[in-house]
Amino acid sequence: MLVFTIRRIIQAIPVIFGVSILVFLMMHLVPGDPAQVIAGEAASQQTIDQIRERLGLNDPIPMQYLQFVTNAIQGDIGTSIRTGQPVADEVFSRFWVTLELTVYSMILSTFIGLIAGIISAVRHYTVTDVVVMIIALFGLSMPNFWLGLMLIQFFSINLGIFPVSGWGTPEQIVLPVIALGTAGAAIIARMTRSSMLEVIGQDYIRTARAKGVKERIVIYKHALKNAMIPVVTVIGLEFGTLLTGAVLTETVFSINGLGRFVVESITARDFPAVQGSVLVIALIFILVNLLVDLSYRFLNKRIDLN
Amino acid sequence: MSNDADVLQIQDLQTSFFVDDGEVKAVDGVSLDIPKGKTVGIVGESGSGKSITSMSVMRLIRNPGRIKGGSIHYNGEDLLQKTEKQMQKIRGNKISMIFQEPMTSLNPVYTIGQQISEVIQIHQGLSKKDALSKSVEMLELVGIPSPKDRVKQYPHELSGGMRQRVMIAIALACNPELLIADEPTTALDVTIQAQILDLINELRRSLGMSVILITHDLGVVAETCDYVAVMYAGKVVEYADVHTLFKEPKHPYTVGLMNSLPRHDMDQDELNVIEGNVPKPGEMPEGCRFAPRCPFASDICTNELPDLMETEDGNQVRCWIYSEKWDGDPEVNVKNDYQTARSQ
User: B267-296, pLDDT tens digit by residue?
Assistant: First the structure.
């Protein structure tokens, strides 16, 4: 298990480098001169030169990349043009809000998704199954920003139960988490259902029943652990989707998180801020996938150390 | 035939599957008695209903299947009247089952020890620790070397023969009165087959249980069974003790099955097959279900379904030839005339 863990961590290193190259190149992939883009149309040549000098754009590109990586390892991912603050500080002050939003949504998605999926699978082809799957289809089809707006309209404006915006109090948390978590719950429900259905048809489930095991234990002990293997993959991938979705949800609910920071930075052409935020988000995503890989080994003993 | 010496009495069992096209009668009026301490073989082609019969005894028929009628008396109590909860106390405890697919019948994410212990904990209420040491004993009983190490292993670390031994250990852990073995050796190598059958036989003798052995292999039947039920298209067509069955098979289908075995004492270019196929559900012939494939079939066979009739030697056969209503050649001898009749 330790060897397996170390191996997986080592495998993540090239991915991190790939991500850093892509993030670094972002600035250079923008059509035209990055300094010109940052300064805007009306800027004087002097301003542009200043920006170019400050961002080190006059150095050869490999040198710039080396500088970028060296700084990033030391925790310096540039300085925001907009605020003049280090991007790292800006990102980490907002990071926790986004992490909270994502993790709560994740918990909601997983919880609701698993339960709905199991119920659907156990009662497959009944009315319950059809109803659950139709709801899931709706959940899957609704864009989270639209769902967010509808939730605000109904619960905040019409009923006045929950606040329209913000983050922090329990009341403020409810709507954004529902808006963000619904699609994930739907995906996890559908995945759990099909995975459970496949597992329930397996010979070893028949064996469990033939042993006199109670149906509830057949489902939750014998079937679920096997069915979880593909579901965990989806949950891990879903985390990435949630991070992306947070951008929109935070905008809709005016939450001062990483997602909204990225949007604002893009609008303001604050390249260092965008670079830094994307790098942090990408690293989190890599970390989550690493955890997912490690959990396979725990769920399925057949995955060999090699 | 039913008496106190029977551990199981199946009466007119009917199990159907309700699919889009209508009802499929997989088991259609099967009656069968299983004497205490004996091995009863159920033979027949695929689709004859032999596995569904055994799954019905375990009450493990799942949707869209349903047991429609009949009774299954186990020690005087009708299993079909029991609640699911009562059945859970019987399954794996009083009546156990092992299956055809040893490779996939064990749960891949739990250890061998956990899977044997589970059945012991459920039915005997032993602690985890005691159940595990009982598991080690069971593995020893079924002839698995170094059982103490094996209990910690996962199914994928064991061969097919070993896994079937584990299945037998699970099935016998609670000293069942009846073991149902559904083609237990079909998926195994020939050498392992013999070992597994010997093991089942030996344990049956030492533990004094009854065995229902489902197979399509007449060689296996000859070696292990005391009585044999031959099934065709959801019905029992012949029931006899194993000696009589092989010496004087009565039903044309039984004779056909025996003739289709490859012979080692003759140089054969071709195997003798029974022409045609098992009738599809929904296309069941009106009369005897074997009539379309039977070389002896006469008018009555195609028009009227025969009952299971008792013969002079106390066995049973479902064939008009043995009844007073027989309208064909009165001198016919099914066993001796089969080949001649077939070639005509």
Answer: 777 777 888 888 877 778 888 999 999 989
Boundary-marking domain end, from B154, B173, B192: B173
Nearest CB among B97, B104, B109 relative to A299 is that of B109
ipTM above 0.90, yes or no: no
Does residue B276 fall inside a structural domain?
Answer: yes
Residue range A162-179, pLDDT digits in tens? 998 888 888 899 999 999
Nearest-by-CA chain A residue for B166: A207
Number of domains forming the structure of chain B: 2
- Domain assignment of residue B149, given as a range: 106-173
Fold exhibited by the domain A88-195+229-298: MetI-like fold (1.10.3720)
B67 phi/psi in degrees, rounded to 5: -80, 115
B91–A211 CB contact, under 8 Å: yes
> B300 lies in a domain?
yes
Rounded to a whole number, what is the distance in Å from the CA of B201 to chain A's nearest CA? 21
> A206 and B99: CB-CB below 8 Å?
yes
Q: Out of B104, B119, B156, name the one closest to residue A203 (CB).
A: B104
Contacts of residue A14, Cβ cutoff 8 Å, sequence gap at least 6: none
d(CA A92, CA A49): 30
Single out the residue of B157, B52, B142 nearest to residue B103, CA to CA.
Answer: B157
